Amino acid sequence: MVGTKVVIVDDSPFSIAYIKGILEKHGLEVVGEAGTLDKVKEVVKEKNPQLVTMDMTLPGTDGLECTRAIHEINKDIKVIVISSMMDDEIVKAARANKVSAYVQKPIDEDSLVTAISRVLESDKLYEELMAEHMGSFKDALMDGINKMTKTLVKFEDKSSCDKEFESKGLTIIVGIIGKFSGRMLIDLDMDTAGRLTAAILKKEDNSNDEVIAVMSELTNIISGNACSVLNRKNQAFGLRVAPPTIMHGENVHITTSDFYTTSVHAETVYGEVLINVGFQRSDDHWM
Questions:
Q1: Three-class DSSP category at 115
Q2: pLDDT more than 70, % of the chain
Q3: DSSP per residue over 32-93, as a string?
Q4: pLDDT at 251
Q5: Residue ranges, CATH 3.40.1550.10, the chain
Q6: Over the stretch 192-251, which tens digit does the pLDDT of each residue have?
Q7: CB 119 within 8 A of CB 100
Q8: What phi and psi, each to the nearest 5 degrees, are found at residue 7?
């Protein structure tokens, strides 16, 4: 939190001075002030802050319009509303406009500092998850197949971030909940799934229902193991998996939702397996 660049948006000199005193006391750097929409745009473009404190009532505009303008300049800038007005309708509108936290005037120093800390720490935690997650899921896939079939898995050196792709025939999706929501999916063709199932069950001529059931459980195990590893690295992730969803057939179209996902291809002795994992940055600082 120390050194974070902040712009204060308020039309009251008293409020600006009071907020600035709290922020600087806790090591944040106030780099600008604004009281109108035009000034907000000017200061944010010039100073590129990491955080903006936002009053809701401003001459000729309001805090939500200013917030939208800020996010048009840089969607990653966090906005914390500080306002005397706070009711369910306003809070709902603030959430819809990507406000990260809401503090009511008169300002309680501890409440403001706690809100700021949660906003900034959430970003760091998300960055940590992004740096760690794919390795954990790849290791879980490799370990699961190795233990159940005594064969090795080799991953392609490159990964992709495609937003959509066509399924090869069988897709198993596991939802992930916790500090950040996400999902893991495994995609493979039915021939690969059949050979992999035969190796796991140690018998040939398995029915399609058996193949789907085995692949579903394998996906569940992989996702659960990977999330457990990530939770051991940082218990703040609090990751849990949901029951698998299964899609199979020809011409199945997979979209990677509206959040960042990564796909990696795994070469097994039974055929190619695609693993796709992603997590969504969340604004749960209101909790």
A1: helix
A2: 96
A3: EEESSHHHHHHHHHHH--SEEEE-SEETTEEHHHHHHHHHHH-TT-EEEEEES---HHHHHH
A4: 74
A5: 128-279
A6: 999 999 999 999 999 999 999 999 999 999 999 999 999 999 988 989 999 999 998 877
A7: yes
A8: -110, 135
The third-level CATH classification (topology) of the domain covering 5-107 is Rossmann fold (3.40.50)
User: Does domain 128-279 fall into CATH 3.40.1550.10?
Assistant: yes
Residues forming CATH 3.40.50.2300 domain(s) in the chain: 5-107
Q: How far apart are CA 173 and CA 276, in angstroms?
A: 9
Please compute the mean of the pLDDT values over residues 131-138 and round it to a whole number. 95
Tell me phi and psi for residue 208, to 5 degrees: -60, -40
Cα gap 264→82, rounded to integer Å? 44
Spatial separation of the C-alpha atoms in residues 132 and 130, rounded to whole Å: 6
Place of tokens 């720490």: 121
